[in-house]
Amino acid sequence: MPDSGRLKRLGLLLLAGAVIIALVGVAWRSHAVSNESQTARAAAVDAVAVVHPAPAAPSDDLVLPGQVQAWNSAAINARTNGYVRSWLADIGDHVHAGQPLAVLDAPEVDQALAQAAADYQTALANQRLAATTAARWTQLLTQDAVSKQETDEKQGDLAAKSALANSALANVKRLRAMQGFERVLAPFDGVVTSRGAQIGALVVTGNLNAQPLFTVADVHRMRIYVHVPQTYSAMLHNGITAGLELPEYPGRAFNAELTRSAGAVDAQSGSVLVELQADNTDRLLKPGAFAQVHFHATGSVATLALPGSAILYGTAGPSVAVVGADGKVTLRAIKIIRDEGNVVRVAGPISTADRVIDTPPDAIQTGQQVRVAQTLPALTGAKAVPHAK
Q1: Could you tell me the CATH superfamily of domain 109-180?
Q2: What CATH number should be reported for the domain whose range is 47-56+303-376?
Q3: End-to-end CA distance of the chain
Q4: Which of 39, 154, 388, 389 is 20 to 30 Å from 331 by CA-CA measure?
Q5: Residues 203-221 pLDDT 10s
């Protein structure tokens, strides 16, 4: 039989080997679990692309959309019922104040005027008779041939007949004025911009849904209305110049001057309405047109250029997501100075050293951990704006 001491040593060796094998297995499993945890955490962190804000040159120009309107514009409706006999002006025609634009047929008004004239003649004849009677009774009163009461009655009858005659005359004048409205006249010098008159068409006054017979616009000088955001309203004042750019005249700018401001911020839009005026001797500016208005305002505004895809729009306004050195996100509110499509000029608590996330997810929050996977090249800034000449 083997020696008992040798068996004991063999058992201890086997036990030690088993313990070593178990410890190695536990260590390997722990290392594998740790690697899996690190891989899972790395997969949970969003990979983002960042861009550094680029310095944009300060600009004295503020570009806003504006609407061009005529110096004066009037929608001309009929003042009497009738049928259109003829129209004498069409769109594009230059007309003068008082020039006939259309002629209406209103037989009811003509007949009513004839009747009113006859009623006036009747009232006038009764007034004359009452005047003669009152004069005779006044003379008889001096001879005590009639009573004072009867004389006063004749004087009262004269006053009543005179009032009736005046009323009939006023009715005649009213109907003559209505008859004069059978000729539709231009209210001022201008251009016919629309014509709704058609020969034979029935014209009914008081119809709010009726199309105007004509629209005449005075275009010798134009008004341009612009809504200026409250942030820049202090930069603009009466007398500053601006340039107008219209899509139908590429590369050409028209001079305009700011003439008045509403002086109040509209609660709905948060902007101040201002009016500019521009000479339109060459008739190139058209009523109703939209234009880009370049204000040559004083007070430069230094801005930073970012891609438009880097801006987050929320209920609190525009913001950007900045990645810190620890990889955590901070949302910072900014102001959009000018939106030029792919490039947005902004101002706010950011600098050229900040890493701004491009195309951030809408659900991104302050404190969220991200991983910078790519750094995009910085933009070159905003483009220059041409001045009017």
Answers
A1: Helix hairpin bin (1.10.287.470)
A2: 2.40.420.20
A3: 120
A4: 39
A5: 888 777 778 999 999 999 9
